[in-house]
Amino acid sequence: AALFEWMEKIANSITGVVGTFKMDVDGNLSYPQLSKPTRDVLGILPEVLKVSADPFCERISSEDAERMRSSTLKSAKELSPWHEEFRFNHPDKGEIWIEGRSIPEKCLDGSIIWHGFLQDITERKLLEIEALNKTFLLHNAQKMELVGQLSAGIAHDFNNLLAVISGGMEFVSDWMRTGTLPDQKLIGAASNACQRGKELVQRLQNFSRQLPIEPDHA
């Protein structure tokens, strides 16, 4: 009894939730044992979850619910450690992030019991998301700088090509008006400029396929 009281005091002093999660053979889910911080971390009284885990499961984000279900069934089948990070709709705090870790064991009646903890990691996840956003913005800025440099180079190349083509067209125009034989070298240069322009467009198309396209949420 003294040992149990000692362990209970330790569990209640931890900021996260320490306890057991049970899956009966008929599929019923519950939390037979939970530490006192449950009310603060999850916004649900431990006494409620001892009867059924439904109030907890119903508050798991719909985006994470199926993954949670699959990982729990996998852990139960393989008796392998369970670990997940998921979004949870706290009744007072709104959406928070929770990390859970537990070790399962199979009981004589066929039910599975996990021993572990649940911890609020919202602050850590927000910092991670902020860092990812900064990295994305940096990469996006670098990408736009590259596109700007590329655009400037392309504009210069196209201006040169258009100048050659324009000169060739002027000679063709003179020929059609006066019957004077056009400069074949200039006509050949104009033809080559058209070909180089075609190749430049092809390279642009290849480059554009390599750029990630952001979905339009408008």
Entry keywords:
218 residues
Describe the structure.
- This protein has seven helices and five strands.
- A hairpin with a 3-residue loop joins strand 3 (82-90) and strand 4.
- Helix content is 59%, strand content 20%.
- It is rod-shaped, with a radius of gyration of 34 Å.
- It has helices at residues 2-13, 38-42, 46-51, 54-57, 62-78, 122-178, 184-210; strands at residues 17-23, 29-34, 82-90, 94-106, 112-120.
- It has 218 residues and is of the alpha+beta class.
- A five-stranded antiparallel β-sheet has the order 2-1-5-4-3, sandwiched between helices.
User: What is the average per-residue confidence, as pLDDT, rounded to a whole number?
Assistant: 79
- Given as residue ranges, the uncertain stretches (5+ residues, pLDDT < 50) are 213-218
What is the number of helical segments per DSSP (H or I, 4+ residues)?
7
Distance between the termini: 63 Å
What is the β-strand count?
Answer: 5
Q: Evaluate the radius of gyration.
A: 34 Å
Main beta sheet: strand number and arrangement?
Answer: 5 strands, antiparallel
**Considering DSSP H and I runs of 4 or more, what fraction of the residues is helical?**
55-70%
Query: Given the helix and strand composition, which structural class is it?
Result: alpha+beta
Outline: rod-shaped
Order of helices and strands: HEEHHHHEEEHH
Strand content: 15-25%
